Amino acid sequence: MRSPLPPLLLALAALALSACSVRSDFSTEDLYRRSLQGSFDPAGRAERMADVRRALDADVAPRERLFGALLLLDSGAVSDLERAFLEAERAADAGLEAARPVMAQAIDRALVLQGYAQKFGTQYVRDEDGVWQLYRVDPATTDAERAAYGVPSLAEARAGAQALAARR
Is 23 helix (H, G, I), strand (E, B) or coil? Predict the structure, then answer.
């Protein structure tokens, strides 16, 4: 079952990105802001992903790479999620700490799409009754590893799932 990005993670990423001082021309940031405003037709996802890939093929600033990675997280293609990880990694290597959780989300989403347990606990799905739950998590991943990627502990992720379920 497809899982949207948890709204809290999107809000945190947007807040962290707003603190970045790098400015660039039209590109992935504009596409990202439009996606938050709901101005994309869901049927145009493939075209949007192609636009993002083209924008990222240019020599863009780290902040743009991060916005592109965030947009690629919406893709249902593992290759786009691998690209999201690489773009977020490049942004993190350039000093944008807000990119680390995006790296974790890309890894988890790719694993979930392939039917595997996620590593970090960033993906939530609805069960057959429509109740949100945390998707299966690999128990070998430690909270220290999660912290290194800037994502919540497993207990916090589980609490987030309970909070989502309670809002139903």
Answer: coil
Q: Which amino acid is located at 28 in the chain?
A: T
- Residue showing tokens 């909070």: 163
- Proportion of the chain in helix, strand, coil states, percent, rounded to 5: 60, 5, 35
Q: What is the pLDDT of residues 18-61, one digit of tens each?
A: 444 333 344 555 555 555 555 556 667 777 788 888 888 888 88
Task: Return the structure tokens found at 164.
Answer: 């989502």
Q: Is there a contact between 147 and 97 (Cβ–Cβ < 8 Å)?
A: no
Q: Are 164 and 124 in contact (CB under 8 A)?
A: yes
Q: At how many degrees (to 10) do helices 28-36 and 62-72 cross?
A: 40
Give the whole-angstrom CA distance, residue 47 versus residue 41: 10
41: tokens are: 């037709």
